[in-house]
Design a protein that fits this description.
Strand order of the largest sheet: 4-9-7-8-5-6
Radius of gyration: 27 Å
Largest sheet: 6 strands, mixed
Number of helices: 7
Strand content: 15-25%
Length: 420
């Protein structure tokens, strides 16, 4: 391989690239079209892969394409950021771009290049960071820096082997995180259903599917230990011709961190504050999601406003707020939330379901003892989880950097790095 002499590419997201490479617009290298299927066409055990607008690949009974292709989500939260590479028969959603029929470019090289650099284009100032769709002209005119086809294939083979090893490490760490999260949940569930003293007399609890609990613990419905209200704040506004507005924290479910005990910050928005239905919440309040990240409790570290995707608890009677937080975190509660009276699994909560949910309630002093135990235990588990998540993020950044350096020619693949 020749010495790597770099020059300016003229493309912001590429910067320097090899003098013997060239820049071409995507539209000159391939055919770009969209799929013809809809989400409702998915079949659980379908014969063919079905590419939709998410990283998850569904299945379908019919195929509308056969061959090598790079696929990209055209709209939704994954617009310009979710990519797939395939080679064979597949079905494709009508808002997924299909990039195929290559001319002078390797499909796998293009996959690595697009997956790495198109997301940078989406996130930089020339494109909205929260795009909801990618228009065809933007895709057609996207600049691709190209070595000769032989070198493209060398780069793809090299990246296939290296990325495979990196993904195995990431998958292993993510499996460890999942195991730790399950362990944390089991510790919480054990503590709020059995207590900390294994020598006390136990009784059978039918609503917990055969769990034994301390005989001196009471069984109560959540509505009997606190007040439960649904959020209903007016949505944020860009402009409102009234003095009755205020800068407030707008607390969104999408901004929360699953598994975290606290909500520590939120986006400041202009909120209409004078409407009677407005639901303000305050530092120390206990909240529960009843949509999206279904049934997740949090304790506020800030004041703010909540919409009707939240439930807020107050006016506690015979129950410690932090003990209730851990009860809501447990499988003993979440399982009841997820199963309706008919036995069907539900994906959102109504306030009546929460009110009627049964929980086990020890005396206050025992509740506080359990909270102290769980705070210490969960802190240790969470610290390990955060360390592993940090490792995953570091490795992912390295992975992205590795791809970027090779598909832009800042590093070259030597003959010894790939098998001919």
């Amino acid at each position: 391989m020749s010495i790597n002499k770099l020059t300016q590419s003229g493309v912001d997201i590429v910067g320097l690239f090899p003098k013997d490479w060239e820049i071409k617009r995507l539209k000159y290298l391939c055919k770009i079209q969209t799929g013809g299927q809809d989400t409702q066409d998915a079949v659980d055990d379908g014969e063919f892969p079905f590419y939709v607008r998410s990283p998850y690949v569904e299945r379908i009974d019919k195929f509308d394409f056969d061959g090598e292709a790079v696929l990209m989500a055209g709209d939704g939260v994954g617009a310009g950021k979710v990519f797939h590479y395939t080679n064979g028969k597949f079905g494709c959603h009508q808002r997924v771009y299909i990039i195929n029929s290559y001319r002078g470019v390797s499909g796998k090289f293009l996959y690595y290049y697009m997956k790495n650099l198109f997301s940078i284009e989406i996130e930089k100032g020339s494109a909205k960071s929260t795009v909801d769709s990618v228009r065809l002209p933007m895709l057609q005119n996207f600049p691709i820096c190209l070595p000769k086809i032989r070198e493209q294939k060398h780069i793809s083979s090299f990246l296939d082997s290296r990325i495979g090893l990196i993904d195995n490490i990431i998958n292993d760490l993510e499996n460890q995180i999942e195991i730790l999260e399950k362990y944390k949940n089991s510790v919480i569930t054990e503590a709020v259903t059995k207590g900390l003293n294994s020598n006390v007399q136990m009784k059978f609890i039918d609503f917990l599917w055969g769990v034994n609990a301390p005989v001196h613990w009471d069984i109560k419905k959540i509505k009997n230990v606190c007040l439960i209200e649904r959020g209903s704040s007016p949505r944020p506004i860009d402009s409102y011709l009234s003095d009755d507005v205020r800068d407030m924290n707008w607390i969104k479910i999408s901004d929360t961190i699953k598994g975290s005990k606290y909500i520590t910050n939120a986006e400041q928005q202009i909120i209409k504050t004078g409407i009677s239905k407005s639901r303000k919440v305050f530092k120390g309040d206990l909240l529960l999601t009843n949509s999206m990240s279904f049934g997740q409790p949090y304790i506020l570290k800030i004041d703010g406003c909540i919409h009707d995707g939240w439930v807020v608890f107050s006016n506690y009677k015979g129950i410690d707020k932090e003990f209730l937080y851990y009860v809501l975190m447990s499988d003993a509660c979440l399982t009841q939330f997820k199963v309706s009276v008919s036995g069907a699994v539900v994906s959102n909560l109504n306030i009546d379901k929460i009110k009627e949910t049964k929980i086990l309630v020890p005396k206050i002093n025992e509740q506080i003892e359990i909270v102290r135990f769980l705070d210490k235990k969960c802190y240790k588990i969470d610290s390990i989880i955060e360390d592993k998540k940090s490792q995953v993020e570091t490795i992912k950044k390295y992975k992205n950097s590795l791809i970027y350096e090779y598909v832009t020619g800042k590093k070259r693949v030597s003959q010894g790095d790939v098998n001919e």
